[in-house]
């Protein structure tokens, strides 16, 4: 009995420390994810021979880190001018001119709705539209936003340095992350926890690599599709759509809405209402085709290689995670569920429901 109380107190202390040092734990987890992505690159580099000798794991880790930094640095340097140009165009949008160009359709819709007398006072759509456009195009708070970003520069630099440093050692010292976890495992459970971690590592590596491939495919397809229909900044819109696509289910809709807003603000100046609707329709077709491809091909492949669960099961897990932790929960739902299924399958496989849920893991 006394021993059980010791375990309970130890767990409470660990949870309290985890909460207090949650930022550092987040750095470790992010570094762990990056090391999973970089592990296949490490294995490939270790096969390379220089003057009859294989390169060291430290050198392979350094090359992998340098490659990742060069890749993401190149992306940032390529897209910053596009973002700046788009911000400039949005700041030059005249809300009154936009409202004037769509005044006719707004009035027609307003008259149609008001004939049903849903409310005692007539509904004025124009005010709602103007409020929405103001929130989208009004950049008067850019100065405050820049000040806020500048205030975060130090924290961002610390996070960048810490994650890079931790990732290097996770890549250099094989099994370091696993060893850190195993130190917390009670005696007698090391072998079973080792199996859980090995299976989880394999599944998560496939999942995160699949996500990167998914982002790349979405970006390329959207960029090419929008370029064909004559949209400026198609690459920027494709990149944003790829990033938002990481959020299950709602992400593609957010990316499509943002992409259409950017596309119309860049290409809709001087167009008549029918031309704006036609342009919007073409953009929606591009996003619709990509979403169909994503739903039918990309997501089933990624999920079948990682979670190996039924689509309805995945949907319910994501829905519950989103209800608990919002968008962050939806993003983390699949990898967390992957680990959970492996863990439950290893330690509680005597129950029928567990066998049913984890039969393919």
Number of strands: 2
Q: Indicate the overall shape.
A: globular
Rounded to the nearest angstrom, the distance between the terminal CA atoms is 36 Å
Topology order in helix (H) and strand (E) letters = HHEEHHHHHHHHHHHH
Instruction: State which percent range the strand residues make up.
Output: under 5%
Classify the helix fraction into a percent range. Answer: over 70%
Q: Biggest β-sheet: count, sense, barrel?
A: 2 strands, antiparallel
* Major sheet: arrangement of strands: 1-2
Describe the 3D structure.
The chain has a domain at 190-361. It contains 14 helices and two strands; from the N terminus they run H-H-E-E-H-H-H-H-H-H-H-H-H-H-H-H. Residues 142-146 have low confidence and may be disordered. The protein is globular. By secondary structure, it is mainly α. The protein has a two-stranded antiparallel ribbon with strand order 1-2. The protein has helices at residues 2-20, 22-46, 57-91, 95-101, 103-114, 125-137, 142-172, 176-182, 190-228, 234-244, 250-267, 273-306, 311-347, 352-358, and strands at residues 49-50, 53-54. The longest helix has 39 residues, at 190-228. Helix 2 crosses helix 7 (142-172), helix 9 (190-228) packs antiparallel against helix 12 and helix 11 packs antiparallel against helix 12. A hairpin with a 2-residue loop joins strand 1 (49-50) and strand 2.
